[in-house]
Specification:
The complex is a heterodimer. Helix content of chain A is about 0%, strand content about 55%. By secondary structure, chain A is mainly beta. By secondary structure, chain B is mainly β. In chain B, strands 2, 4, 5, 9, 10 and 11 form a six-stranded mixed beta sheet that branches. Classes of the chains: A mainly beta, B mainly beta.
């Protein structure tokens, strides 16, 4: 089974802090994704990457950036955290177009 | 881009009854449609998927149907059990863009014992 591991289950950060969310997958998947999940809004795509050092904006990239220096690791960065970034963040990876996502367990981020 | 709409947002059924969740999509190029189940506090898990060259797929009590002409697909759960209670998400994946999914907003299913 593919494992997608998110480094933190819960995080509490202060407004203005720089926040790093880490995601690691162990099955050599090329495609990795960051979503945020909010009640009533479903899962919204922030950024994705289809190869090392490659990144593409999703539907809501404002206030976020990403880094993919190694194939197995995809990091989400909140440059200056704000309270409206309080959310559940889900990382996912995918082998290719004919396959589903495998999700990580999620990081519940609270910005105070 | 693709737009996926999902209905209903909440659904309550008696144990043993059937549950149906419907999704519509806008991009005719979408060719892969997975369904995810998310139990409270857990990660979404793929439960069934269907590709555009297939009209129906079954896996025990779960089935998915796809109508490409009408651009809608549905999840059917028969003989529901309390452990089916969860949030269900549909998604669509266009063939001609990146490898991302576009998700519906989710259906919270409650099975009443």
């Amino acid at each position: 089974d593919v494992k997608v591991t998110q480094s933190s289950r819960y995080l509490v950060k202060r407004t203005g802090e720089k926040v790093f969310l880490e995601c690691v997958q162990d099955m050599d998947h090329e495609n990795m994704f960051w979503y945020r999940q909010d009640p009533g809004l479903g899962l919204r795509l922030i950024y994705f990457s289809y190869d090392v050092k490659m990144k593409e904006k999703g539907d809501i990239p404002e206030g976020y950036s990403v880094s993919r220096e190694k194939k197995e690791r995809f990091s989400l960065i909140l440059e200056s955290a704000s309270t409206n970034q309080t959310s559940m963040y889900l990382c996912a990876s995918r082998l290719g177009k004919s396959y589903g996502y495998t999700f990580g367990s999620g990081t519940r981020l609270t910005v105070v | 881009g693709e737009n996926v709409e999902q209905h209903p947002s909440t659904l309550s059924v008696q144990e043993g009854d059937s549950a149906v969740i419907k999704c519509t999509y806008s991009d005719s190029a979408s060719n892969y449609f997975p369904w995810y189940k998310q139990e409270l506090g857990k990660r979404p898990q793929l439960i069934i998927d269907i590709r555009s060259n297939v009209g129906e797929k079954k896996d025990q009590r779960i089935a998915v149907t796809l109508n490409k002409t009408a651009k809608h697909f549905s999840l059917h759960i028969t003989e529901t059990q309390p452990e089916d209670s969860a949030v269900y998400f549909c998604a669509a994946s266009p063939a001609n863009t990146g490898n991302q999914f576009y998700f519906g907003t989710g259906t919270s299913l409650t099975v009443i014992p």
